[in-house]
Amino acid sequence: MLALDIKNLHKHYGAHHALDGVDLAVREGEIYGLLGPNGAGKTTLMKTVLGLQRPTSGSITLFGEPHSRALLAQVGALIEMPGLWSHLDAVTHLRLHAKLRGVPLERIETVIDQVQLGEVRHRRVAKYSLGMRWRLGIAIALLADPRLLILDEPTNGLDPIGVREMRGIIRSLAAAGTTVLISSHQLSEIAQICDRVGVVVAGRTRYEGSLQGLAAGGDLEAGFFQLVEVAGAGVR
Predict the structure, then answer these.
(1) Any idea what the Cα angle at residue 89 is, between residues 116 and 153, rounded to 5°?
(2) Whole-angstrom distance, CA of residue 178 vs CA of residue 151
(3) Which residues contact 99 (CB under 8 A, 6 or more apart)?
(4) Which of 18, 62, 88, 111 has the highest CB neighbour count under 10 A?
(5) Which of 44, 37, 1 is nearest to 20 (CA)?
(6) Where are the alpha helices (DSSP H) in 9-129?
(7) Residue 232 pLDDT
(8) Contact 163/130 with Cβ under 8 angstroms?
(9) What whole-number distance in Å separates Cα of residue 205 and Cα of residue 222?
């Protein structure tokens, strides 16, 4: 079954076509990498899936059903770093979000364990590293126990230790049954964690499938840049 099925999706801003015919199929239980150069339309695509922007045309199906607000309750997301209060700790943040969403407070300990913030749960966010802040953002996204988790550049700005920790968290979530869609332009990171990938260039899907199928002569980077060059869109 597909967790997310996107067909011929368009999003136009006047004459600018941010999305110009995107097709993606994300299978339940997999880690799916959404690749593309800056300005390719990745963030616009994710915001459209989340109902934050209205598509111009095309279709989005979630868990086998037409896209709806009710189904979005089963989707968690971290598109940008959420607003965090520096004087509050992780537990207080999660309690506030749980009450706003009507989520049982028992979920707090579960998500803290999932993102490995147990040792710093009562530390003020002002003293958190960037990696800890990202993990708290993911914990907030996980509160409602989503079937699909969408993450936009979750390793951006992290040091090697933070990247490794984030990779482990994402793998553990998938192992527990959560479908994960990750947007990134870091090919090496996607290669280490994703089951399949989709490449979006200039608002269109240029490739979807295995990493092996994307590689040119065994070289993943070469295959990616060939797609970009064929599309006539330079990486900015």
Answers:
(1) 55
(2) 12
(3) none
(4) 111
(5) 44
(6) 42-49, 69-72, 90-101, 107-114
(7) 60
(8) no
(9) 18
Distance CA 39, CA 42 (A): 8
CA 50 to chain centroid, in Å, comes to: 11
Tokens of 216: 């040119």
Q: Which two tokens stand for residue 75?
A: 């989707």
- 56: its two tokens: 């111009």
| Distance in angstroms (rounded) separating the CA atoms of residues 16 and 147 | 33
Nearest to 138 by CA among 159, 168, 161, 160: 168
- Please give the angle made by the CA atoms of 186, 221 and 150, to the nearest 5 degrees: 30
Mean pLDDT of 64-80: 94
pLDDT at 235: 41
Q: Collect all residues with Cβ–Cβ distance below 8 Å to 94 and sequence separation of at least 6.
A: 108, 111, 112, 139, 140, 143
Amino acid at position 50, single letter: L
Q: What count of Cα atoms within 13 Å lies in the side-chain half-sphere of residue 136?
A: 31
Q: Which two tokens stand for residue 190?
A: 């996607």
> What is the pLDDT, as a whole number, of residue 236?
39
Select from 121, 202, 191 the least CA-distant residue to 155.
191
Q: Is the pTM above the cut of 0.85? A: yes
